[in-house]
Amino acid sequence: MSEPLIRLDGVTKRFGSTVALDGLSLQVPDGTVCGLLGPNGSGKTTAIRILLGLTGANSGSASLLGVAPGNPGFVTAAQQTGALIEGPALYGRATARQNMEIQAATLGMRNPDAEIRDLLELVGLTDRADSKSRGFSLGMKQRLGLAIALLGNPRLVILDEPTNGLDPSGIVEIREIIKRLPERGVTVLVSSHLLSEVQLMCDRATIINKGRLVADGTMDEILGSSGTADGYMVYVRISEADSASAALKQAGLEVEDRGEGSLVARGEIEDDSEITRILAESGIWLRGLMRERPDLERVFLSLTDGDGDAS
């Protein structure tokens, strides 16, 4: 098994009397897209800064691409890591292409033109390659920041709110790009407050709260940790909700009434026709029926005691 590209072991970080990280341990395996989640003030940014060598820990250890900050080889490891943290740092008077050329020179890249063209196409900025970035919308700046983070074929990219400022179609496009990055040999750590997007783009998730790890694993493992089984959303007339609930419970199912004629039925259900049959036998006709699966937002709120959002 290969060495995780990111590792924190028992890391504690204090700022005066404030404990930002409290014995935090986590790792990101090679070839994965991992979501880093937590409420405001949970320690996500501090953890990222420690990984990148921008601040030190009071105790514990960290490594990036297998190298600890301050050790020989860490500069090389950092150069193999792309990052988009707290918004892209762009030169407003420079064009999109020139901003990428500046970053390529910083990385010591030779003849980067073909890679720059490829990445601008990847993020949908080919038509704006020669436009000055100061005129870009927030979403366009995020796209350019992602392209810059991918320069030099990094083994790892760390992305903070990569879909910030994008319209719905742009969010989908960037999500699909991020999902496919492991095919390019890139491992991804992404932090986002859009939990539905994290669920769709990531195959792993790490959730921290008050500087401590509360969940870590594959997305299926995280969703399964809620203890909530798959179920069915059942929609009936409001006047028939109580009768429908009683019929479903009589059939041995657990029922949650969400009001306005909507119920959630869970239990041993072979398929949706069974729900239809149970209600029809009680003279109740469905207005709608759909499968409901545990979602990351509910799991997140349960694990963090509803402590804010994931921004």
Explain what this protein looks like in three dimensions.
Helix content is 32%, strand content 26%. The protein has 311 residues and is an alpha/beta fold. It has two domains: 219 residues, Rossmann fold, CATH 3.40.50; 63 residues, Alpha-Beta Plaits (2-Layer Sandwich). It has a six-stranded mixed sheet with strand order 5-6-7-3-8-9. Strands 11-12-10-13 form a four-stranded antiparallel sheet, with helices on one face. The two termini are 33 Å apart.
Largest sheet: 6 strands, mixed
CATH homologous superfamily assignment of the largest domain:
P-loop containing nucleotide triphosphate hydrolases
Low-confidence stretches: none
Sheet/helix structural class:
alpha/beta
CATH class (first level) name of the largest domain: Alpha Beta
Counting H and I runs of at least 4 residues, what is the number of helices? Answer: 11
Topology, number of strands: 13
- Helical fraction: 25-40%
In one word, what is the shape?
globular
As a whole number of angstroms, the C-alpha radius of gyration is: 23 Å
Key terms:
single chain; 311 residues; alpha/beta; Rossmann fold; Alpha-Beta Plaits; 2 domains; six-stranded mixed β-sheet; four-stranded antiparallel β-sheet; 26% strand; globular
Write the SSE topology:
Layout: E1 6-15, E2 18-28, E3 33-37, H1 44-51, E4 59-64, H2 74-79, E5 81-84, H3 96-106, H4 113-122, H5 138-149, E6 156-160, H6 168-180, E7 187-191, H7 195-201, E8 204-209, E9 212-218, H8 219-224, E10 231-235, H9 241-250, E11 254-259, E12 262-266, H10 272-281, E13 288-292, H11 296-303
Parallel strand pairs: 3-7, 3-8, 5-6, 6-7
Antiparallel strand pairs: 1-2, 1-4, 8-9, 10-12, 10-13, 11-12
